[in-house]
Amino acid sequence: MKSFKNHLSLVIALVSILFTIQVFTVVDRSIDAYKDKLTKNYSLVIVSQNKLLPKELKAKVSTIADVIELSPESVIKKLNTKISKNNIELLKATLPRFYKLKLAIYPSPDEIQKIRKKLLKIKSITKVESFSATHDTIYNLLLLFKTVISVLAFAILIVTVLLIFKELRIWQFKHNERMNIMSLFGAPTWLRSAVLFRLAIVDALIASVVNFGIFSYIASSSWVSQELKTIGIHIVVFDKVNDFLSGLAISVTLSILLAAFIVLGHKEEV
Amino acid sequence: MDKVIIANNLSLAYSNDDTIINKVNFSVDTGSFIFITGASGSGKSTLLKSLYGALKPIEGSLVVGGVELKSVSKKKLNFLRKHLGIVFQDYKLVKEWTIEKNIMLPLIINGYEKSVTQNQVDSLLKHVRLQHQAGKYPQELSGGEQQRVAMARALAHNPTVILADEPTGNLDDYSSQLIWNLLEGANEQLETTVIVVTHHIPETMKVEYKHYHIESGDIREVI
Ligand SMILES: Nc1ncnc2c1ncn2[C@@H]1O[C@H](COP(=O)(O)OP(=O)(O)OP(=O)(O)O)[C@@H](O)[C@H]1O
Ligand SMILES: [Mg+2]
Question: pTM for the full model?
Answer without folding.
Answer: 0.72
